[in-house]
Design brief:
2 copies of one chain form a homodimer. By secondary structure, the first copy, chain A, is α/β, with parallel strands linked by helices. The first copy, chain A, has 13 helices and 9 strands. In chain A, helix 4 crosses helix 5. In chain A, 54% of the residues are buried.
């Protein structure tokens, strides 16, 4: 599969179907919630309404209201469970961009056997990628972690048919996502990556070109606001930011600005576990950026080599809860990377 | 094992050892962090320092500082890994109250085979317990969930050698914890339960008396501040509160007041998944009560029967990040249970 197969601009019909149903049902989860109902039925149908509600964490009567609207439009039908009609499958596969019906076990930490080639390919790439630059708080996730992140993104509907943004990507998670998408035969996918490290930007672009992956990387210093063409256009962002709370705050705020201004758009934030006080500060920064954490997995990410945080960090999955917010919108002048904090004062627990 | 074996007031020596080491190392995790280092070494030793750091989410150099202090006191020794000395084991088993060296797989959702009798006992009890009162937002967790909660409390160091508080307990999780503690041969444990439903209070007390469990239940309406003797004395609290954000806020705030005024004390909050906006409100209420979420597991809890939220809710594990806070300290006059909101206005998404 080559890049052209994957990148197709999202159809306006798909978006207006989702928006129309969300409005008709006054759905607190917005168009994203409607999309999730369709996706769950596509992947699991025929499926009892109760199972759709469980899968999405949306109350049964609310899912029933969405089902009613989709039935009226001839996209859903009821029998032993809910099922997409032919028109429903066409809408899902067409404008919405959903093709893959694979369901992964969300609680497993093992690499699915058929995706093992992706891990091997990442291992191969990691021998040739730029060396770690500790002044930029770089530290490489393992190939298994990069692949597990890709599966996690897919399973939480941030990959297939999506515009996905990476703020920093020395872990090559974007490449893992692109390779996994190809392996799984996913529908269209459009990934943008920004990183301050030009060596990495070049490596990602070269790899994408060689493998035919739908990834574009740009050099960008996150202290500077994002260019206009990257603002307000993504369905989800992923970041494993600098290790300081200030660095996290800047990256997350830029990430929020990159998202479509709609409730329910997702953010995937990887960050080391902290002391109780710093954890409160971390969560507060997410909330103030208009992101609500919905899942926190303390030991999700594994890194290569022995580090201060013993080679692990947490995965925090968030949903956009307030489409108006982003805390840092101007140029940021303060310190952001661990090394910058070391210059000015003792390290303390900023790492 | 009878109640007298389990309830022993926590030794002042244990507490001062933990506080002394926390102060000497200026540990951001406080005495709780020192306790966790000792517990991890007891359960896993001899263990590499890196593994202790991973287990606790505390940086390696910080764990090394704690190790140094414990070595100086003759409680720890270094060989292939860190290990408790005989004096260390005595301190752990004595004043700190840690006896059990069992380590459970944190990611598994299965009931450990040797604890299956606890599930059977809970099944038996659930046939005789008071019927659900929906006006109090009661809804019974399954016996498997009650047992898994007990294991989760143990694994996260909220059970053995602890004073544990339940704000509401129509799920009988306190009984599950008591039975599991007996089955595992845990050191002392002291559980207090308050619930507005006197039928339930009587049932818990009768069960505790019959089974010889270290549980005392009291009738209490959470709108009213806790009695003085329950304030500031617990190591952790557990609650599966009313389904409204206001109800959650009151329960959590009372829970925070019940905790020892020390950073790192834990809160276990079960709550249905919500819309993005309500999730932000939920997390904000936790933060404003001085609790930082450290783990969020969206589908941890399963309930009996078909409910609005399709019989599942999330587990949010928090640590006390600010020993001074609790948002609701006076008598609370507002509505708290779902039915009270239904009276005044349409239900909307308060459920």
């Amino acid at each position: 599969m080559v890049r052209e197969d994957l990148i197709v601009p999202e159809g306006s019909e798909g978006r207006s179907l989702l928006s129309d149903v969300a409005e008709a049902t006054r759905l607190a989860e917005g168009p994203e919630g409607v999309r999730r109902v369709i996706r769950t039925v596509l992947r699991r149908g025929p499926v009892p309404i109760r199972d759709v509600a469980r899968d999405l964490g949306i109350p049964v009567p609310v899912v029933a209201a969405v089902r009613g609207e989709l039935e009226q439009r001839g996209l859903l039908t009821r029998g032993a469970g809910i099922e997409l009609t032919e028109a429903g499958v066409r809408a899902a596969e067409g404008d919405i961009g959903l093709k893959c019906r694979r369901v992964f076990d969300r609680s497993t930490t093992e690499v699915p056997q058929d995706l093992a080639p992706v891990v091997a390919a990442l291992d191969d790439l990691s021998e040739r990628r730029p060396a770690v630059d500790p002044s930029l708080d770089q530290s490489h996730a393992t190939s298994e972690t990069a692949l597990r992140r890709a599966v996690y993104l897919y399973e939480h509907d941030a990959l297939e048919g999506r515009r996905l943004f990476f703020l920093g990507d020395d872990d090559l998670t974007s490449v893992a996502a692109g390779l996994a998408a190809r392996e799984l035969g996913l529908g269209r996918l459009d990934i943008d990556v920004v990183d301050i490290d030009d060596r990495l930007v070049q490596f990602v672009n070269q790899t994408a070109a060689k493998e035919g992956l739908p990834i574009r990387a740009f050099q960008h210093d996150m202290r500077i606001p994002l260019p206009a063409e990257l603002m307000g256009r993504f369905d989800a962002f992923f970041t494993d930011p600098p290790y300081t709370l200030d660095g996290l705050g800047v990256f997350v705020s830029r990430g929020v600005e990159s998202l479509v201004a709609e409730i329910g758009k997702q953010a995937f934030v990887c960050f080391g576990r902290r002391s109780p006080e710093e954890t409160a500060g971390l969560i507060d920064r997410l909330l103030r950026s208009g992101l609500a954490p919905v899942e926190m997995l303390p030991t999700f990410n594994e890194y290569v080599g022995a580090q201060l945080l013993a080679g692990q960090s947490q995965m925090i999955r968030c949903v956009r809860s307030d489409p108006g917010r982003a805390t840092v919108t101007e140029r940021y002048e303060g310190p952001m990377y661990t090394a910058e904090f070391r210059k000015g004062r003792s390290r303390g627990r900023t790492v």
